[in-house]
From TrEMBL:
Pfam family, one: TRAP_beta
Cleavable signal peptide: 1-26
Membrane-crossing segments per the record: none
Keyword Signal applies: yes
GO cellular component: endoplasmic reticulum
Keywords linked to the UniProt accession: Signal
Name this polypeptide is given: Translocon-associated complex trap beta subunit
Length: 224
């Protein structure tokens, strides 16, 4: 049998260890709502999609999302709106907001992060931001057609021509090859013409009319 004092000391130690362990777990657990916001662009008409995911253990209430930076002088709003409200986002669930804008100008455009505010729990107000979009090239209709042509050309050439510089090099090489083939064809045709003239001249020197030879060849072909 163990002494009573040893048993009591052991029980007290176990109780203290359990209490400390529960305290650590409670400190590490996200007991309030925590929204993770992600933004991306879909399609050529610039459909902006903002996803809000609640990674916390309580519902996020009074959620407001706003995506500023789409200036009316540079973009036409097709709707519905750059901002949205959600009454509640339960734990481990997500909500998505989409809107469409059409660019009015060309060039490089950089979109900043979306802004979100919400009640995380027990009246605690929280806020956050999404990721910022990478610089986005806005092309003219002609530039867009060129880009499509480049992609098709890259596919047809098995990836050898992917941009304008590579297409320029390919065009130069093709032009040189076509030029060499043309020069070679002209040279061969010239040699044949010279040989034919020499043949006719030799026949005339022998008193043979080249036309009579041509007529006799045609008659032989008809008999066959």
């Amino acid at each position: 049998m163990f002494p009573r004092t040893a048993v009591r000391a052991t029980l007290v130690a176990l109780f203290v260890a359990a209490a400390l362990f529960q305290g650590v777990v409670a400190d590490n657990a996200p007991t309030s709502a925590h929204l993770i916001v992600h933004k991306l662009i879909i399609g050529r008409n610039m459909t902006i999609e903002i996803t809000l995911y609640n990674a916390g253990e309580t519902a996020a209430t009074g959620v407001e999302i706003n995506d500023p930076g789409w200036d009316s002088s540079s973009f036409a709003m097709l709707g519905p709106s750059t901002s949205a409200k959600f009454a509640s986002i339960p734990p481990l669930t997500k909500k998505t907001h989409r809107f469409v804008v059409v660019p009015k100008v060309t060039g490089q455009f950089s979109a900043g992060p979306s802004l979100v505010s919400y009640t995380a729990g027990a009246g605690h107000q929280a806020s956050g931001t999404s990721n910022a979009l990478d610089p986005l090239p806005i092309l003219t209709p002609w530039e867009a057609k060129v880009e499509v042509a480049m992609k098709i050309g890259s596919y047809l050439t098995l990836g050898f021509c992917n941009n304008a510089e590579e297409w320029t090099k390919a065009a130069i090489i093709t032009t040189v090859l076509v030029g060499l083939i043309t020069v070679n064809w002209i040279a061969l045709k010239g040699k044949r013409a010279v040989a034919e003239a020499q043949r006719k001249q030799a026949m005339k020197s022998l008193g043979i009319n080249p036309k009579d030879v041509a007529v006799s060849k045609k008659q032989k072909q008809k008999k066959k």
